[in-house]
């Protein structure tokens, strides 16, 4: 009974933190999908410059820890250039850039998995490269990419907990602030875990439903 | 009128010379069959004609327009060149009807109704109007290839290119595909066909071109080429396939 009361007392704060976690994740992933798509297409074009941009971006971001990236953006950048970012903005940038690097690879592999005869058939009808991409290649490729996307989305949701390091009051930091005051770490962290699970499990269910729905062709 | 004019075409992949100095004219309503052993460059030649392969050297003119000139709008030009592939390359995420009308709708600005009317007409022509709402995965190879032809015709091309259209088919399905091509030829379509179907070439072609090792070795009417080949390489090839 005592346990439940402790959790219920902390719940408003935790739910607020959960809201921030969801907000950061949604904004970051929308931006990351866009960057991932663009750089993914860069990575398969004939242009050597575009390919290099894509490869360098992916290698740098994948080759460094996310926590370092977060600290770098929030504390490192303002010390050399004249910007001051809120923890929320820095968090969105860090999660976006990090997720984008992995999404580039998912887009690249997904697009490459489509038979090259599809591009040729589209071009032969008279479609431009980008029309063929949009109308013929991506609709097929995205279906195959859904499981990989969901994987990355789940990783990114969990990664947002690292934003507690720069003082963003997302779910993890909200929990920390509660048990720092009441010393009930077990109950509060248990509740934090459950709330993450709820977000992630809902996403899993949604993706399974989506895959079934798209499986008509 | 020259529909296709190929001048001194050369194509190399790295050090491998696939086409060495090819010259061809294809005239209006002419049906040209290109035959030859595998690796002779015949598919590459066809693919150069709509710039799926970039020529290494030489010029190609489609209805007088220089294919490789920098100011040529290749997307517009390709609309005049229908192409049928060995592997069909239908769009698997679209129904048969959607495959056929995608081009007319998106590139020619036809309304859904207009496009569907045209689509129905073309599917009737290839005998597949009852498959309009089916996805390509549920079709036989012969049916897929007939849909691919309807899809190409939907752009109302002036020239049709065929890249071994029956090579991926089970033997019993070859006839239905060749029949549609024959109908097209009879309606006066200008056609260039890379094929291994010697019977078809004999019967339908106005001119047969024999290629070997990147050269045009010999060309002539089917009667000249099949009944009285002059070059010994042509003779050797024909003795193996006829």
Overview of the structural elements:
Chain A: Pfam families: BPD_transp_1. Chain A: It is a multi-pass membrane protein. Chain A: InterPro entries: AA_ABC_transptr_permease_3TM (IPR010065), ArtM/GltK/GlnP/TcyL/YhdX-like (IPR043429), MetI-like (IPR000515), MetI-like_sf (IPR035906). The complex is a heterodimer of chains A (217) and B (242). Chain A is mostly helical and 217 residues long. Chain A has a single domain (2-214), classed as MetI-like (MetI-like fold), CATH 1.10.3720.10. Chain A is 83% helix and 0% strand. Chain A contains eight helices and no strands. The longest helix of chain A has 41 residues, at 2-42. The radius of gyration of chain A is 21 Å and the shape is flat. Chain B has 242 residues and is of the alpha/beta class. Helix content of chain B is 38%, strand content 26%. Chain B has helices at residues 42-49, 74-79, 96-107, 112-125, 141-153, 171-186, 198-204, 222-227, 232-241; strands at 2-13, 16-27, 31-35, 57-62, 65-66, 81-84, 159-163, 190-194, 207-212, 215-220. Chain B has a six-stranded mixed beta sheet with strand order 6-7-8-3-9-10, sandwiched between helices. In chain B, strands 2-1-4-5 form a four-stranded antiparallel beta sheet, covered by helices on one side. In chain B, helix 3 (96-107) crosses helix 4 (112-125), helix 3 (96-107) runs parallel beside helix 5 (141-153) and helix 5 (141-153) packs parallel to helix 6 (171-186). The model of chain B has no long low-confidence stretch (mean pLDDT 96). The A-B interface holds A 115, 117-118, 120-121, 123-128, 131, 135-136, 139-140, 143, 216-217 and B 50, 52, 75-76, 78-79, 81-83, 85, 87, 89-94, 102-103, 106-107, 135, 137, 151-152, 155.
């Amino acid at each position: 009974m005592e346990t439940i009361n402790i959790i219920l007392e902390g719940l408003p704060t935790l739910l607020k933190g959960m809201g921030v976690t969801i907000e950061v994740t949604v904004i970051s992933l929308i931006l990351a999908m866009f960057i991932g798509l663009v750089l993914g297409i860069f990575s398969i074009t004939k242009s050597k410059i575009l390919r290099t941009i894509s490869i360098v971006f992916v290698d740098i971001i994948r080759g460094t820890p996310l926590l370092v990236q977060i600290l770098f953006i929030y504390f490192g950048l303002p010390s050399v250039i004249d910007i001051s970012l809120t923890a929320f903005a820095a968090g969105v940038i860090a999660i976006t850039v990090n997720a984008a690097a992995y999404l580039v690879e998912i887009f690249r592999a997904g697009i490459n998995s489509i038979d090259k005869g599809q591009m040729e058939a589209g071009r032969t009808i008279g479609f431009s490269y980008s029309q063929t991409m949009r109308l013929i290649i991506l609709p097929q490729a995205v279906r195959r990419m859904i499981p990989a996307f969901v994987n990355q989305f789940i990783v990114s949701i969990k990664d947002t907990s690292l934003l507690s390091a720069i003082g963003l009051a997302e779910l993890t930091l909200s929990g920390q602030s509660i048990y720092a005051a009441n010393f009930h770490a077990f109950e509060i962290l248990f509740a934090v875990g459950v709330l993450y699970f709820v977000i992630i499990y809902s996403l899993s269910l949604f993706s399974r439903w989506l895959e079934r729905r798209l499986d008509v062709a | 009128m020259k529909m296709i004019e190929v001048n001194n075409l050369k194509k190399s992949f790295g050090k491998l010379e696939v086409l060495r100095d090819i010259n061809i004219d294809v005239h209006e309503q002419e049906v040209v069959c290109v035959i030859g052993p595998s690796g002779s460059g015949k598919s590459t030649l066809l693919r150069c004609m709509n710039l799926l392969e970039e020529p290494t050297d030489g010029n190609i003119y489609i209805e007088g327009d220089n294919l490789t000139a920098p100011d040529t709008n290749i997307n517009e030009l390709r609309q005049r060149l229908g192409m049928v592939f060995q592997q069909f390359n239908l769009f698997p995420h679209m129904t048969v009807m959607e495959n056929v009308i995608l081009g007319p709708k998106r590139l020619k600005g036809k309304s859904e109704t207009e496009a569907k009317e045209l689509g129905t007409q073309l599917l009737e022509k290839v005998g597949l109007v009852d498959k309009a709402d089916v996805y390509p995965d549920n079709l036989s190879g012969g049916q897929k290839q007939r849909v691919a032809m309807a899809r190409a015709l939907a752009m109302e091309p002036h020239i049709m290119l065929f890249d071994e259209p029956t090579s991926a088919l089970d033997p019993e399905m070859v006839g239905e595909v060749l029949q549609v091509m024959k109908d097209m030829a009879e309606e006066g379509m200008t056609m260039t066909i890379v094929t291994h179907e010697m019977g078809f070439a004999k019967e339908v072609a106005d001119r047969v071109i024999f290629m070997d090792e990147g050269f045009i070795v010999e060309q002539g009417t089917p009667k000249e080429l099949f009944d009285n080949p002059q070059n010994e390489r042509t003779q050797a090839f024909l003795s193996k396939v006829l």
